[in-house]
Amino acid sequence: MELGSWLGDDLGRFTSARGLRAYAGVAPLTWASGNSTTVTHRKVANRYLKGTCHLWGFTALPHSSACRAYYDRRREVGDAFAAALRRLAGKLLSSLHHCLIHDEFYSEERAFPAHGSQDAPVEESNP
């Protein structure tokens, strides 16, 4: 199955998971000016996809121990409920992008590795 059949008709539109996360509104938005830096959520996004990702992350919490552990780690670091849920949704969306690009099934071990950087997204493909 091709990526375009899942995410629109333009196969080159989302060449990386980062672009897809930004389109969905789950990627952080950083504003920097002089010595100040602010990180916020994206307000301009595909509302349907953003809502779906929010619901996807929320419903994954009681069913996936890896998702619950990731969410709990983000809360311990100091993220608010919505920010931690956006991060989780971003991880899940990156995993979906990886699965569609590489024609693979979802692997919780690959999406949430036990070792290494916990916040690193699933491998992004850049043609």
Molecular structure report:
The chain has six helices and two strands, in the order ααββαααα. The protein has helices at 3-7, 17-24, 47-60, 65-77, 81-102, 108-111; strands spanning 29-33, 36-40. Strands 1-2 form a two-stranded antiparallel sheet. α2 packs across α5 (81-102). Residues 1-5 and 115-127 have low confidence and may be disordered.
Rounded radius of gyration (Å): 15 Å
- The global form is globular
Number of helices: 6
Mean pLDDT: 81
The proportion of strand residues reads 5-15%
Proportion of helical residues: 40-55%
In short:
The chain is mainly alpha-helical and 127 residues long. The chain has 6 helices and 2 strands. The protein is 52% helix and 8% strand.
List the helices and strands and how they pair.
Blueprint: H1 3-7, H2 17-24, E1 29-33, E2 36-40, H3 47-60, H4 65-77, H5 81-102, H6 108-111
Antiparallel strand pairs: 1-2
Helix pairs in contact: 2-5, 3-5, 4-5
Key phrases:
single chain, 127 residues, 2 strands, 6 helices, two-stranded antiparallel sheet, mainly alpha, disordered N terminus, globular
